[in-house]
Amino acid sequence: MLKQALAEVRLHPGRFVSTILAVAISVAFLAGSSVLVATEGRAEGMSTNLGISAADLVVTSEEALDLRPIVAQTPGLTAAHPVLQLTEPLRGERESVLVGLYLVPAEQLRWANLTAGRWPEAADEIALSRGGASALGVTVGAVVTAAGDERVTVVGVTDEPGSAFVRTGYAAADRFVRNGLVTDAVPGQWAVRAQPGADLAALAQVLGSKLEEYGPTVVVRPAADVRAEALKQSTRGVEVFKYLLWTFAVVALVVGMITVANTFAITLAQRRRQIGLLRAVGASGAQVRRRFLAEAVILGVLGSLVGVAAGIGLAALAAAYTGSLFWGLEFPSAELWLAFGAGVASTTAAAWLPIIRGTRVHPLEALQPALTGEEQRRASIVRGLICGLLLAGGAALVALALAGRENAFLEAIAAGALIALGVLFGAPLFVPGLLRSTGTLVGRWGTVASLAAKNSERNPRRATATATALMLAVGLIVTLQVGTASARETMLAEINRTKPVDIAVTWQDADGGAAAIPEAKRTALAMAPGVTDSLALAAVTALLTDQESAQEVTVLGYDPAIAGLTGVPDGVGDDEILVGANQAEYLADVVRVKGPKGERELRVVASKLADYDSALVSAGTLAELGTPIAGAVMWLSVPERSAAVDALLQVHELAGDSAQVGGSVVEAAQVEQVLDLLLAITTALLGVAVLIALIGVSNTLGLSVLERTRESALLRALGLQARSLRLMLTVEAMQVTLVGVLVGLVSGTFFGWLGISSLGRTMRVQEVRFAVNVPQTLGMLALAVLAAALASVLPGRRAAKASPTEALADI
Amino acid sequence: MTLPTHLQSEPIAVATDLVKTYGSGDAAVRALDGVTVAFAKGSFTAIMGPSGSGKSTLMHCLAGLDRPTAGEVTLAGRGLANLSDRELTAVRRDHVGFVFQAFNLLPTLTAAQNIVLPLELAGRRPDASALADIVESLGLTDRLSHLPSQLSGGQQQRVAIARALITEPSVVFADEPTGALDSRSGHHLLGYLRAACRNLGQTIVMVTHDPNAAAYADRTVLLSDGRIVDDLSSPDADAILAAMKLLGA
User: Fold this and answer.
1) Do A221 and A57 touch, CB atoms closer than 8 A?
2) Which of A261, A225, A657, A309 is nearest to A469 (CA)?
3) Nearest-by-CA chain B residue for A724
């Protein structure tokens, strides 16, 4: 029986390609995310433990000690080196990057090799890792700028890439010394190398006893243990990404299951004759079912194998792109087996019900001419009841979520799940009706279109299953899109409400204290594109203290023009200090403000004009605290949102490194950036599910074309042009897709609105805004419908290519 | 070869030296081996022969459903050999009517919609009175809004005839039209065909293996092994049977 099933798959590969594809895609998603996250986590761990990656033993100590002479006297140990790191911001051609500079290790303890140049020796020389060099856009011999405009030469480049978050480089001992660090006797981590083949446990003991005099804080451990522990920690840190990705993969898997179930239903309907023959010849119902189940399992195994391989390949590509591939691919075998198993299990589960239904064939059916597989439209009462219950439950939860506050978001999620289940489960009840309505619209476009419309309606169960997969995938995407668009509008409204200052430029001197903005820059800032009004304020750097905290802030002097610029009429008395609303909450009622010239005790008043690092006092108070630096801070008003981006770019360019740029525009830009990225990623991830659903559309169409060979031949004989036949199939595909996509759109919009309003209520946001990014959403819908048209191309060609006589001859 | 003397009027369909081979090399099969035949306008011809004689292939080539390997087909004065697929399709739509043995109708369309389908495909509107006449003469007036699944075999075939007649084609090709019917419905159907020929002057070419069906026609052409072996004028069933027995010898 297994042989028969295998033979069937080998003989008719085309029939099974789409099933294998659907399974392979979801499994590739699961396996790929697993491997990618594990690899990234490992790379992360390796990068942050570079210092000990070549060591055999690791000594950690809180006491300063110099291991080198001790190691020299211990037989079996060859070298020791402190793991010291300097983190410096370096600026190259293009950008400023934070680089972790390691003290150049002794030769035996080096973990990377030079690909060009040499190791740094002087204080102003450094070497960079490959990742660091490319981030800065420099090569050997280039000069980069460190803090304080110090010029540093890149004398070498090594081969390790660094992970996505950490850039590494190397510096000589002199540089460390110059920065006030000692390099011979230090606390912290020491990397120790032993002779090859030595007994590390014994050596650890020996070394440990020698270091006892330094106290209990000295610990000697095998490096492998320390590395493994660090690796575990970093992997745990990235695990959340894996779970996030797996959530999307599960969605893809569910959509895949719907597709597989539909495919099996159709193919079994077409093989009714074969099944009838088997039964006529003497196979029992159970034997027939087992045979088809075997086919399903084989398909699941094949698809999962392809999926795991493809997933690993994709993960390798992604890891190569981020540079993590340098540390090698990590294969979490348990998870890969899980992905494989999920693929096989889901295929079998999806095929199970269609097989049970489709093999209930009477032996006589083998002898009768094959029907076109039409079915009666029976509204199932049971289905209606269950659907009704689900929807009623969902509606109740919606009411709760809209009225409640604390748990509104959770209730909204539960409501969404119930309603979604109700809609998906009840699809056979309303999709045929929708097909009929769209059919009457479509049918007005000519004979071919009306033929297509009628074809879509004749197999309601099949069309419904196809549309359901689309509903699920599109619904999720639209929910995310609407949610994100609404979140953006809400957050921006919130920002605008709480931060009246659009752009604030705070000039700084070399030490980070307040400095006056140069005249030329001030004029340029005032004339930046989109800036309609500006105000220069005097500032003093002061220390703000109360009983519990001390904080350095830039204290600004009040200027009456502030009211006009920001629209906030708050004034400040001579004994008051304006601070941000959040600070006002945790500061005492009275704080002491100490400036360079004097100090005052001031009453704390919350105001929108102040921020977490700036406060406002009256001009008189400012003069008492210190010499006010006039024009140290500039506030710019950019009322037009559309001009905000240009304004911000110009301001950043003018400000360079010498100033801090803040304000509502800056925050808004950050919010938009994060949300855009989030939306892009989630859309791409859900796009996988949509892809599978569209494969389902192509599949359904292809299989129904097979069934209708005689009809297509009849139409061609009667005078339908080949092109018109292909058009008919395209219209059919687009009609079903349109129905699925519309339902997904409506439900997605509803869920998005529900989610955002509940989330807003749970997080006590003042004003929740509902928004739909129309071009984005409509664009996606148009894309889906177009893709459906594309999906109909192959089946259409097959249908039109068949010569009328071949099909008609088979009576 | 000269035209038979009983052809009084201009032939509406002519096949000249038709050859159709399938396969190649040793496995080649010559379904038609040099067939020349002409059909007069307004005639009812039956093409008969044992299985494998090539009668269906001949009909396919005459109707523009298939292209012969060699030879020429002329339909209403138009040669079909050099037409593109688009043009050939248009010829079928506007100048040919089809009645097949079974599966004649589109299951999603009502009887009325099936009947006017060729006109709709051509973008033409049916003439209401012509449609009514055809429908009435075939006894389909109260069946027009039914789906094929709601019609009997004989009714389905009559709908197919109505569809074949509505475009006023040059020739109606019928391929075993009574093959799936019981004898009574079959006789009724043949009666309708003959009436269409007599009353509307419709040229009909019918492929059949049943001598009783062939007896309804004015002329019977016998094929065997891809060649015309006999051409009988207004034969009765016995004469046809006798002619066919000779083939077996």
Assistant:
1) yes
2) A261
3) B121
